[in-house]
Amino acid sequence: MKxxxxxxxxxxxxxNFVRLTLDKYPQYKVVVVDKxxxxxxxxxxxxGIDFVEGDICDAELMDQLIRDCDIVVxxxxxxxxxxxxxxxxxxxxxxxxxxxxxxxxxxxxxKRLHHISTDEVFGDLELDDPNRFTETTAYNPSSPYSSTKxxxxxxxxxxxxxxxxxxxxxxxxxxxxxxxxxxKFIPRQIxxxxxxxxxxxxxxxxxxxxxxxVDDHNTAVHLILEKGTIGDTYIxxxxxxxxxxxxxxxxxxxxxxxxxEHVADRPGHDMRYAMDSTKLRTKLGWKPQYTDSMRxxxxxxxxxxxxxxxxxxxxxxxxxxxxxARGH
Length: 328
Ligand code: NAD
Ligand code: TDX
Fold this sequence. Notes:
By secondary structure, the protein is of the alpha/beta class. The protein has a domain of 200 residues: NAD(P)-binding Rossmann-like Domain (Rossmann fold). It contains eleven helices and eleven strands. The strands form three sheets. A seven-stranded parallel sheet has the order 3-2-1-4-5-6-10, sandwiched between helices. It starts with a strand and ends with a helix. The model has no long low-confidence stretch (mean pLDDT 97). The structure holds nicotinamide-adenine-dinucleotide and thymidine-5'-diphospho-beta-D-xylose.
């Protein structure tokens, strides 16, 4: 049995990855390391794993954990663009120094690493640009968040080339699904409507995100662990780059019987992300399970937030107050 060390496993995508692994990939023993920042929820994690509360910037701890595992799947990050505009420093610490710390331990102990990254490293596309991001698109990040993720990808590639570490990288588009922090777009709107508030659309809402259900992201990660070529990068996306933010909010409002209002736009707001996942599909045989332009995935996600109010209710007021202070 191989030991998977999952960094950031108490966050949104990491928690879903751990749950999927326990369900469908019994060949792995799972160890989670997580600092339990505001974005984490220890209670999201299932029984049957080892949990270590710790910081990926802690070199001694990471050395020990990586020595004792077979594979590292690196999700831990500061992940919210709006927060990175208000206070960039934690993004540099975790996303850059944290990734560096992991790379050095991976190098010392000759362990396999998969680094989780984002489409935002490529910057954005104009609405009428027919192109999509591919594995060879040049990096052009816009925000403190995306620039630190870009830096982390560069570090991983440099450690592959200079030190021959056994690593792969994936860049995925916007995820949605259960256990996502309610500061993020889709859960914020669902929990607003469940709280009797209008949904909140930044600016005109014409921005496009290439939404993917979190389970589709995580099945791709498992496939890369099983069959990916060491040193390679894989783009992950589910072909939803035809749906803009306004249409997503309208779908949620229609499904839940809610209303929405326009609020102040995000400074430097990226216009459009679009992913070309041909390599992952043709070389590794991946395909997403949620293929109906988000309707099934949104219905499942709405049902999850409705059924799990105790998971989010305590945080709702504070998050909306923070957004109100920023004009959102
Ligand atoms: P999240 O913010 O929900 O979770 C991040 C987790 O990392 C939290 O549990 C937090 O406590 C932990 N963490 C933060 N700093 C840490 C540190 N110094 N040491 C240890 N743990 C720390 O984020 P998410 O949405 O689950 O994103 C996970 C990864 O996927 C990130 O690398 C992100 O860049 C990437 N990604 C996210 C999306 C998306 O749409 N959410 C899309 C593509 C890629
Ligand atoms: O209340 C809102 N209203 C709104 O219109 C919020 C919170 C967001 N938005 C808009 C901004 C974006 O265009 O919705 C879109 C999605 O916003 P976020 O959920 O904040 O995601 P985004 O900034 O696109 O980044 C996400 O996808 C890429 C994740 O947070 C990143 O971690 C990931 O790398």
